[in-house]
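Q: Hi! Curious about what Transcriptional regulator, AsnC family looks like structurally. Here's the sequence.
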Amino acid sequence: MSKELDQTDCAIIECLDADSRASLAAIGMDVGLSGPAVGERLRRLRDIGVIEGTGVRLDLRALGYTLQALVRIKPRSGQLHRVEQMINDQPRFMSCDRVTGEDCYVARLALRDVAELDDILMPFHDRAETHTSIVKSNIFKDRLPPLLG
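A: Let's find out. The predicted structure is below.
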């Protein structure tokens, strides 16, 4: 089945990106369809794998996480799988990408204060090199790439 999208599919996705809790009727008003027609399109977009789920955006500061850090992680020889498991097991890592280049992973940490950094990263030091940058501000949050063209 093709994952080709039309302009209406893109408009529906953009509505969901702006408010994942919007009703089908509200989305339909925005894109010029009935609520049931939006529901059918959403089912199709899920069935073909374009939409994997919907969620919420959190204000981390409201939850007490005043800092974020980007951590580049380079496992020592023979430690790749163990380090990956350690990253997966540490709930403060909000995301992690396997990358090319000097490092194997780039991960994002949520921190209540900078003092937590040592406690979180210390277990890694026998198995990996880490390089950390504190995030000063976000220019923009996650956003959709162009959906057509």
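A: A fun detail: The domain at 7-47 is CATH 1.10.10.10 (Arc Repressor Mutant, subunit A).
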